[in-house]
Amino acid sequence: MTDTQGYLDQRAGLAGRTAVVIGGGGGIGAGITLALAGAGVDVALCDIDQEQMAVTVATARDMGRKVYSDRIDATDPDALDRFYDDVARAFDHLDIVVNVVGGTYRTNFMDLDRTGIARDIQRNYGYVVQSVQRAVPLIRLGGRGGSIINFTTIEAHRGAATFAVYAGAKAATTNFTRSMAVELGKEGIRLNCIAPDTTPSKGNESAMPPEIAAGYANVLPESIGKAMAMYIPAGGPPPVEALANAVLFLASDLATFVSGMTMHVDGGTMAAAGFLDWPHGDGFVPVALSGTVPYMFPVEQK
Predict the structure, then answer these.
(1) What total of structural domains would you count in the chain?
(2) Which helix (H) or strand (E) is 236 found in, with range?
(3) How far, in Å, are 194, 197, 264, 285 from residue 271 at the CA level?
(4) What enzyme category does the UniProt record give (predicted)?
(5) 93 occurs within a structural domain
(6) Nearest residue to 22 (alpha-carbon basis) of 89, 91, 88, 84
(7) Which residues, including other chains, have CB under 8 Å from residue 26's CB and lie 6 or more apart?
(8) Is 225 within a domain?
(9) How far is the C-alpha of 130 from the C-alpha of 82, rounded, in Å?
(10) Which of 56, 57, 121, 136 is the most buried (most CB within 10 A)?
């Protein structure tokens, strides 16, 4: 370890703390779990995917961390309560909570039934409220405050057609987080959001309708990469490590006075607000110009 790394570790103060990661078994959640474990944090995690979670748990234990895990559907209120009951027995307090679980699928709002609407609200907002309510008493036991990090999305900050209920639920999570940051501020309990955009996750893949997913099978990866580079100013979607790094920052003492905020880990898409880097010489504009339009709409030109 270099002197610089030792200095940053000391300032961050993560070693020896305890965390809960809801949805910490696979994908983005696994990256977060292992980043926390690598920083010296003991972890309790739950996930619906037992196989992936087992790999994550084994890796975290190999790092020398105490780990508790349980296979549950975090959107089931009874299951989430049981998980927190078990966490309270496994650890004498909590310092960090990360609520990663979420997801949706692309469809017109008027095609949704009430079951689908309720499901979107529960898995993108409802369980977060329950998780925070169960976690706060365990954080209070530590007597030194703590950090709760809720995953929201860029869609909570723009009109997301065909993702309306998802976007509304994530917006609710965002403002709930702000409100609780105010309510718990004097106790040193900080709440913040991370708002990714397109990320390499099973959730984003499953959100696509089958016909679109099937169409992607015939598209070269290089072409998909070029499309992402048009859309995301940084040139591509954030890797899992970028999201895990944001969690480490918000969980640590480096962010002691950061609360009620939303960190956009999106490569600049929120800042771009619709400005795409169109090909064929059009450059950064909201709508394709003469260079790209003939390729998009191949009709006879003047």
Answers:
(1) 1
(2) none
(3) 15, 12, 9, 13
(4) oxidoreductase
(5) yes
(6) 84
(7) 47, 49, 52, 53, 56, 202
(8) no
(9) 12
(10) 56
Both tokens of 206, joined, read: 């499953």
pLDDT per position as a tens digit, 55-113: 999 999 999 999 999 999 999 999 999 999 999 999 999 999 999 999 998 999 999 99
Cross-strand partners of 45: 21, 69
Domain assignment of residue 291, yes or no: no
Q: What pLDDT is stored for residue 1 in this prediction?
A: 44
Per-residue pLDDT of 257-292, as tens digits, reads 999 999 999 999 999 999 999 999 999 999 999 999
Q: Which amino acid is at 205?
A: E
Compute CA distances 175 → 45, 156, 246, whole Å. 25, 10, 19
What amino acid occupies position 223?
S
Contacts 24+ apart (CB under 8 A), 218-226: 226/279
Domain annotation covers residue 298: no
